[in-house]
Amino acid sequence: MSWPLGYRLLELQEVDSTNEEARRRAAAGEPGPLWILAAEQTKGRGRRGRIWEAPPGNLSATLLIRPNRPAGECAQLSFVAALAAAEMLAALVPDVTLKWPNDVLASGQKIAGILLEAETAADGKAAWLAAGIGINLKAFPPGTEIPATAVEAMGVTAPSPQDALLDLAAAFAKWYEAWRTDGFPAIREAWLSRAHGLGLRIRVRLAREQMTGIFRDIDDAGALVLGLPGGGTRTIAAGDVFF
User: Global pTM?
Assistant: First the structure.
């Protein structure tokens, strides 16, 4: 696997958060695409402000890009990132699946997470976008609400973060180009082919309620389509899924 053409790499020993570093560099005029890899994060975070534990040996990286697309469309890049991470991990561990909206599972346990952040310009386009990807190579946090695992916990010698990023960056470049050329339909189809729990009963927790139903699909914007017990469906743009 070779490093994707046109992408640069910044390696840091320690940083508060690779996404925060991407934000700072975007504000300073960094054009991207730039991968930021940190040996250690002191204030790593996940979705909804949750703490993301990233001990040395795990992969903590963020890609800073300027997609020049409407901000709403750019939210689809979380699926691009998930596909890239799944492709990298599938070469190492078995039963790699994708959990809506943006987690990667191995044998049903969380092994990677994605945090997408962006700034919207006055014209409604994303001025910049940071795709943060954390992958449990060496270790995983115990006692999490969604059980977690790591590459080494599955009996496989974990690659170095640098080697893992090489494969991840190549996979992201491939899927990103597919998104730029063909739009979301190709991404959606590939994501659904790895979707965990598709066609099964799930529980979805929203900010003020939770519900159960059948995981029917994701729509053309990436929202989850939930089949309701009484018939009909509900489209969910954001939430936490449990199986």
Answer: 0.94
